[in-house]
Amino acid sequence: MDFFATIEQSGLAQWVSASVEGYPIMITLHSVGLAVVAGLAVAIDLRLLGYFRNIPLSSLRTFFTIAWIGFLVNFLSGAALFTSQATTYVTDVTFLLKMAFVLVGAATIGYLQPAVARIGDGHGADSVVPSGTKNAAIVSLVVWAAAIVTGRLIAYL
Amino acid sequence: MNSVLDWMESTWLNSLALNYAWTWPILETFHFIGMSLLIGAIFVMDLRLLGVQRVIPTVTVHQLLPLAFIGFGINLLTGIVFVFGDPHRYAVNPSFQIKMVLIVLAGLNALLYAVKVAPQLATQPPTGDTPPIAKAVGAASLALWIGVICFGRLIPYLGLGEL
Asked: For residue B95, which of A129, A148, B88, B146 sits 20 to 30 Å off, Cα-Cα?
């Protein structure tokens, strides 16, 4: 626990928890990043599940990249937010659950990105998306929703 | 103005928002989910307007509109409960006011797209580059919606507003 107590004393942690602007800036960045990563993950997942079929699978490449940018924004802003209450968060069940969902969510994007690249260019036929890829898309939808729910509830539980 | 706010405070929506400990957290969670649905759809459509991934046929990107409208609808409904739950503080909150202005501007921008840009795109090759007005509308949409998220999240921090 010493480690987390040390983090909590860091300059960054002090800035986030004690300054007027630190926490609002980080939580705002965290909201924007959330919308980008979860929003694009959902759009990609739905495309893989057979919706929006006029959007070529090959074009998803760009949206995977932007989803990762959203993820990075939230990794960094989330790390900053974590430092401000590190000792509390490490024992918070809701927070740990959220981390698990985010980890699985990131893993599904990491799995889907090369899987979609392998499919190549498919304009119409839903059948070109293998069932394994579709299952991963369903997992992605569920865990990103769960990450949002548990993330929001950290403040309440 | 005050009488409207007082009336809002007397409605069942106000009771719903305040009388149950779980209403606010649950609706907030839905507000974040709605935001994500809206932003996901908006990003794909706006980036195509900006000329990114031209393999996507311009007008058929409208297939994403239901996703955007579902997200917006969820947030309109949950947002209305928030405002009815604390009308006096929202009314005077600068961050909330800016957020509402940005949503109206985003709506007008979408109207401009529907009236002017989409018909123009329909006459052009679907997988080509987009005209400057399309790029401007796409960029404005991205900027406005990101602004909506920022000022929405900043509502608790920018001027709490006196009761």
From this structure: A148
Take residue B103 and report the two structure tokens written for it. 């949503």
Give one DSSP letter per residue of A87-119, joined into a string. Answer: HHHTT-HHHHHHHHHHHHHHHHHHHHHHHHHHH
B3 CA: distance to closest CA in chain A (Å): 32
Q: Under 8 Å CB-to-CB from A104, ≥6 apart: which residues?
A: A139, A143
Give A28's contacts in chain B (Cβ within 8 Å).
149-150, 153-154
- pLDDT (tens digit per residue) in A115-133: 998 886 655 444 478 999 9
Q: Single out the residue of A93, A101, A89 nearest to residue A139, CA to CA.
A: A101
Q: What is the pTM of this model?
A: 0.94
Find the domain containing B67 and state its range: 2-153
- Per the CB < 8 A criterion, the answer to whether B82 and B90 are in contact is yes
Structure tokens at A99: 């981390």
- Rg of chain A (C-alpha set): 18
Look at residue B90 and tell me if it is in a domain.
yes
Q: What is the ipTM of this complex?
A: 0.94
- Any domain includes B162: no
A143 to chain B, minimum CA–CA distance in Å? Answer: 12
